[in-house]
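This protein record is not my work; I was only asked to verify it. Where you disagree with what is written, explain briefly why. This is what I was given:
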Amino acid sequence: MIGVEKIALNYSLLDYEWGKLQSLNVYGVFNVNYTIDDFSSENVVVFSVNVSVCFESLKKCEFSFTVLKEARLAKPSCDFDKTFTITDFSLRSYLTEIGLDGSTSLLPAHQISELLHYLDIAQFLLQDQCNQQELPFAPSKNGWNKGCPKQLSLPPLDNTTRCHLHDFCTGVTCCTDVRILDRTVTTYFKLDPCNWKLFIGIERMTHTINLLDYKFGKSEHFKLHGLIHLDFIIEEFKISRMYMVNLNLSVCFETHYPCVIHVTVLRNTQLPKRICNWKSDFIDSDFSYRTFLQEKGLPEDQTLTNYHMKDLMEELGISEFLQGQECYKSQRSLSSLMNGWENECKIPMSKLPKNPEFVTCKIRESCTSLECCLIAGKLGRSFKLFIEIEPCLFQLRLGIEEMTFSLLLFEFEWGQPVEAWLFGLVRMKFTFTDLSAENQYLFDLSVSVCLEAAKTEPCYIVVNILEKYRLPKPKCDWNTKISVASEYSLYDFQSEGIYIMNLTFSFCLDDTCDSEDSFSVPVLENVKLPKQKCHWRDSYRVKDFSLGQWSKEKNTEQSSVLPDYYISELLEQLGLTYYLMEKQCRVNNETNGWKSGDSI
């Protein structure tokens, strides 16, 4: 609320533009200018307020005063367990008072609007209602549309409600049909273990809870003015990386009678926490394999039995990420492989290095996809690792067993080492350098198995699989059945220093683009594009480039002849590769460095 004398204005914070300069002016004489910022993580609002009185429209105000400047004011605590705004509200009594049957199952439209405003609910409702027959709620089984790939036990829902379990597995969004109001209601409950937050909402009313100081196991309630309830209990199991959640959804119209809708959304449901970063260390920061063996009464040089191996995986918290069938059982026999490699790539490549006998790898037909099987002998277990670049989809994917990650190539830092760990036990480290002019990737890959959490302890297995190896890029086939195609023409008007371009984008569902769902959009029609002037006196592409510093970063001597892979990296970084001739000139021992004739 903001006011000047008798003028008072109320603003809903549901639509408020935080941080924007706002004004209240009374005919230009009395003026209040203010900004309000919401610092939700600190639970404060920041106010800046200036008041002025002006009698000259073109001159400085006679009076101007800064009331608040970036003042941090604590937010009042909100009671989300409040019941109806109307004391002892009863829908039956309300309907009787306005002359309607108290047992009616569907109210007239105008009465619905009046009721929602009477209960102070209307301002919180979404303009676009959820639809149970559309994504993400359909298709459904037992009321559930499941995006989470894990096997979870979910209670069946009644016919009023459809819910979607999100692909990150710790979030639920539901759509409930409230027949008497002739509308659906959206509710959600999302746990974010990486940022330690719980996001909960009913239509437009939302709340964020910090899990760092949250009391797990406590019964909590979140209500939209008594009409819609979310009741929940969260318990956390750190070692198994699970939340156990009970979540109930209710729609109520009576203060002293049972709710008309009551849905058990989650009942003792264990929701797996997602991996928050690629380099996930041991859950137990003091874990020691030696101590594990001692506690089990096992000798250090003994290969673990299947029972003890599974016991170890449970203790490390990685059982859920292990594949059902070990990779070595599905690999081709070692004798049929060349140096421990199976190469399906049809493009010529340099000779692959020899793998140790406990490592086998495969390069797939795409040429930029690699998977390896690493046998950790004394653990009695093999582990699958894979990494692939999809240049046509602009995506990087990698994984260790069932733990997978993906990243768009637009966000990838070429030439920088990246690590991915399966909770400290199995690790991969890789570097990709994009040699775009040579149409290749330069690839380094090492894998390791580490049994001690202490950083001073060496890993049990360390294998350098590839070092500065060149992987050929495949050509992208853009002529797919479903495609976004482009047609263009480009004309070069050299004397005028311009190009003239025509460009049309087409969305096609068949080869001919003739189907009813296909369409084309002209983007450019005879548009003149000025040619960029070429400045051949520009300095280095890399600002303040120094060969000495570059050599130091690569751990190589500046005076020595560079290996071919470093030459490719250097020329790519300096942007010179495109300008070099395929056939190099040669220096011969001619008289005083000169040779007569036309050829060199």
Observations:
- The chain has a mean pLDDT of 86.
- Helices lie at 91-97, 109-118, 289-296, 306-316, 327-330, 547-553, 564-574.
- Residues 547-579 form one domain.
- The first strand starts at residue 2 and ends at 4.
